[in-house]
Amino acid sequence: MEATIWTDELVNRLITLWNEGLTARGIAEILTRESGKVVTRNSVIGKSNRLDLPMRKISRKLTDAERHERRVQASRRYRRKRMEAAIASGEIVKPRGRGIPVDDQQIPFAQRKTTFDLDNHTCRWPVGDPKDAEFFFCGGPSDLAGGRPYCVDHTFRSMRGA
Domain limits of the chain? Predict the structure, then answer.
């Protein structure tokens, strides 16, 4: 049988960190860093059980609405980071009041396209309800350099989530 990694110092440190409320993974990382020995999350859990340390508070289950809200927030953070990275790398240019108006209903009638008018060089951003007779696509010049089906402004909006 292998020798135990648990010295008195390591056990005392485990108890201290456990009482501070750190997670088993966090404790394992700290003990590994401090002792130079490999301490795993499972070894921390096992030792805490053998030492009869107090159980952690069981977290309540999230409601469907809370779970949905967390997913929405995570998605927004991801899109924001992706957009910031694309702007920082020069992959897309952040619009500065040029191009498409903020309100899609202000897109000039001459620029608006129907499904049949679209080609590889026009923005395919949909505006309105496809069931309505007033439905149209932006029709502005698409961001061909970025390989996107939208103009620069709508590419920015699609990644921003607006």
Answer: 8-50, 64-160
